[in-house]
Amino acid sequence: MFERFTKSARSAVKGASAHAERADADAVTEEHLLLALLDLDSGPSAAALAALGVTGRRVSVESALAEERRRGGLTRADTDALAGLGIDVTEIVAKVEATHGTGALAGGRRPARRWSGHRPFTRPAKDVLERSLRVALGRGDRHIGDEHLLLALAARPGVVADVLADHGATYTALERAMPAGPGTARAS
């Protein structure tokens, strides 16, 4: 499938691996994909994020992602469902962090066993890559561009989609802000 990726999409995937490496993460996540897309200076995803004002709020996006990690990756839907059962996630996080330290639910680092230095992609990150193909085909594009990766992130329910939506970048808003229409993604 990687051969169908445009140069900018390949750059975003490689950038996600670099973000994972800098964070000393065991695997590449959806969050790393979003951060790599925010790094792009040009292309449809950069234009859409800029049009929606997301690129100017990168610090806010990173802060929101860090806060989500503190809650152990629970989505807004998870938190709301638990609140409906009378469970206050904020209170639980505070108690866990009081006992085990700040960020205890964010997941600790395990010793990495990467003989090749290659970090695998998490199942959710792989799902985003697969969904990007479906998004491209659905838009009539033959190649997978960075815009398809961004739309796939926004379409997949979870923390990254919640953070994007909180910053005004829902799937629909992103689609409207995309400068290129169907059939415009080109392999480079």
From TrEMBL:
Gene3D superfamilies per record: Clp, N-terminal domain
Keywords associated with the record: Repeat
Segments forming a coiled coil: none
Protein name per Swiss-Prot or TrEMBL: Peptidase
Location of the Clp R domain: 2-188
Signal peptide residues on this chain, from the entry's feature table: none
Cross-referenced InterPro entries: Clp_N_dom_sf, Clp_R_N
